[in-house]
Give the backbone structure.
Amino acid sequence: MRRRKATSALNTRLSPFQKIYLLLFAGFILGPFIPLIIQSFAFRWAWPDLLPSTWWLEQREKSMLPLAWDYVLSPYSRMLEATINTVFIGLVVTVICLAICLPAARVLARENFRGKPAFEFFLSMPLIVPEAAIGIALLMIFIRLGLAGSYIGIIIAHLIPTIPYMIRMLTAVYQGLGRDFEEQAMILGANRWQVLRLVTLPMLIPGVVAGALFTFLVSTNIFLLTFFLGQGKIITLPTLLFSKIAGGTLDASAAGITLLVTVPGIILLLVTERFIKEEAFGKGFGN
Amino acid sequence: MKKLFIGLSLSVSLVAGGAMAEDPEATAFRDGFIAGNVDWQAVQERAKKEGTVNLYYWGGSDPINIWMDRTVAPALAEEGVTLNPVRITGTKDAVDLVLAEMAAGKGPGEGSVDAIWLNGENFATLKRQNALFGAFAPKLPNSKFIEWNAEDPRSQMNLRDFGVETGGAEVPWSGEQYVCAVNTDRVAAADVPHTFAELKAYLDKTPGKFTYVKPPHYIGNTFVQATIYAHNPDGTGASAFQESIDVIGAEELARLITPGLEYLKALEPGLLDANGGSPRYPEDPSALDGMFLNGEVDFNCKFGMFAVATGLAQGTYPEAAEQFVFPEGNMIKNKNYLAIPANAPNPAAALIMTNYMSSVESQTSKLQGTGMPPGIDPWKLSEAEAASLAAASPGLVGLTQADLDANAAPDTNATLVDVIEATWLEYIERDSTDPIDVIVKRAVENLSK
């Protein structure tokens, strides 16, 4: 959205301040990627050299073991398994989250009942309670239930921090929607199913896509809960990355893995960008 | 994390109320194998039925990960066992998992960890909690390559792990020695220190070019232990630190370690970045590797007999890195092991795996591929086997095997390590003004709770 605004502003004229602001903005976002990209192609890169003194390709033939990108792209790095797990868990979590949150958001936006403010506060609790506390408590329960180290366990755990976000987003969308359009359709003779299919859902779609995108991105970035409940058996991109960089240094293969970890999110952003038009937010959060 | 998990295990055990589920067949198999009533063929057959072995190991090294997938997995597949290499960030995570599962009532055959690569404190914890499979190691066919005869002093590294009796509950996998490397581009040969006094003198002259890994990391603990050995007021070195804290007592331990800790305190102003206040200690060896590569420090001490050779091959060490003898007579040597937890879900497959890991073939390819020194004992091999093992070595850089042997020292008893670690944290890191004997006494009391 920000970028859209920026490009439309570019068509007019930018003040020097705006240009500097844009450059700084781009620098902060893209800047960290530059050393990462260089590091991923390095063999030996020591301070104070501006560029690696030895590149990976120079050593490639000499080394008995796959280095840098050869390692990252080889099955030894477990990247494929981690990516599939991450995307699979993210998708399932998103679908379940939507199924839970759509009806809940509808009620929260439109109905009034006793204890509603308290209930809304209760829904936000998982955002306040530290993830580690939730993880430990869940692990205790899940070990007894035999869910620890299983996909189901991780998916349930991921629902905890994602549901509050999704509910808040969808409630806002429903609030913006109003009952008028649905009532109008009913007056004109539509049945409940037709109202849902032809009126409510199309108007909700941008908000739903935004919420789903957000849920997916949150799910694919959860480290601690996945780490506790996956017990090292189920690896996702965050847990793989953490075990690689926990040592505190970033070698070429760690840099390569870091770069690849960002790919699913970027692809998803590009795919969904056309769904999330400004009016999604305008309608959703306006009024 | 540690406290978190202790709390967790305690609360789980309260919830569980002591009820422990177990697979009676797994228990019978274990008892039979340890009593020697199950022959190896039966183990192989059972392993085929189990099908998988879940090996938990520190997954931060590319060469080890590659070796596991490239060499170990196909070799075990020939035995009908699929290797599931679970890469963990810290060995303690696997130990905590076993204990949490046991506390939640998952008994023999019901857990999720089949084997763990570990030593020292982690083994001692499993042993203390009665969470080990039992004395399987001497029953493995390939244990003939390991010296078990207690009358041979060289067997100590197989029988005792940080002073704790292994009781055959873990099988040696690799033997390491604490070796320091120096960047010879930056330090003249004549200036390379070989004793702690020379190190102090060097840092007085050129401050800031040395640091060591921070305890409680075991690499840091080992540096502190070597210092304490060298400053032992009785001059008896490592031999005074082989008994448990219950035998030695807090007062005597405080007396033995005071000179070493005072030396470390005096060394602080010469350490990395100390001129602006307190020095910078890296959290783990890979952080120290980074500082060494970047020239922030000129020395790098860790367990790594072949660290320079492999570091050069991986680009993680500066090109002029060389090993040297330091500290003279106190280069701590120990082994690391593979242990099977009591509730291993695939005990027979775990036995097949640990037996394979003790074979000459796997030890040779491990040495060649990862630079991890052998855990089996060369004098128990045939001449041809010993020669092939020696030929696989990535090589020492700047010193000889004779130098390493001549300066070797044993590790410290695991119960003392805890106390020394707590004392370092309080006396050095938190700059406590209490005298060392008070700190030691407090640490002993806290740890015995």
